[in-house]
């Protein structure tokens, strides 16, 4: 399956994610994304720093929020998964070994369902070496 197929089928195709992306664990490239989701290089780098456990990046994100495709989200969780909200919408971020899965959901979706979908794809990628 191609990276784009993972985004289209395993994320957006579930109905729990409205837009999704897979970026490199280093935060230096997007492997695939929904057509209407463009995560900027600086945003990818911040996401990668948070995933890597960079405490300064985590503290800054809690204080100032995290930006994904130009939208500011208020960071609420950075444990195993990263979760942030913008109003009633949310973003779920989960790393695998070589990639970071990003899923954005709207207010019609429960955050737990969206997080489960993102985590399931990240787990699948881990099991296949990514």
Automatic annotation (TrEMBL):
<protein>
    <recommendedName>
        <fullName>Profilin</fullName>
    </recommendedName>
</protein>
<dbReference type="GO" id="GO:0005938">
    <property type="term" value="C:cell cortex"/>
</dbReference>
<keyword id="KW-0009">Actin-binding</keyword>
<keyword id="KW-0963">Cytoplasm</keyword>
<dbReference type="InterPro" id="IPR005455">
    <property type="entry name" value="PFN_euk"/>
</dbReference>
<dbReference type="InterPro" id="IPR036140">
    <property type="entry name" value="PFN_sf"/>
</dbReference>
<dbReference type="GO" id="GO:0003785">
    <property type="term" value="F:actin monomer binding"/>
</dbReference>
<comment type="similarity">
    <text>Belongs to the profilin family.</text>
</comment>
<keyword id="KW-0206">Cytoskeleton</keyword>
<dbReference type="Pfam" id="PF00235">
    <property type="entry name" value="Profilin"/>
</dbReference>
<dbReference type="GO" id="GO:0005856">
    <property type="term" value="C:cytoskeleton"/>
</dbReference>
<dbReference type="InterPro" id="IPR048278">
    <property type="entry name" value="PFN"/>
</dbReference>
């Amino acid at each position: 399956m191609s990276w784009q197929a993972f985004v289209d089928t395993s994320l957006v195709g579930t109905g729990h994610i409205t837009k999704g992306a897979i970026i490199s664990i280093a935060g230096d490239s997007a492997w695939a994304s929904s057509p209407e989701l463009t995560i900027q290089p600086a945003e990818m780098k911040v996401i990668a720093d948070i995933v890597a456990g960079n405490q300064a990046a985590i503290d800054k994100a809690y204080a100032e929020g995290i930006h994904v495709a130009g939208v500011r989200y208020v960071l609420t969780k950075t444990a195993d998964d990263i979760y942030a909200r913008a109003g009633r919408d949310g973003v779920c971020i989960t790393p695998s070994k070589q990639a970071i899965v990003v899923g954005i959901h709207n207010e019609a979706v429960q955050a737990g369902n969206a997080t489960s979908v993102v985590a399931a794809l990240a787990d699948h990628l881990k099991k296949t070496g990514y």
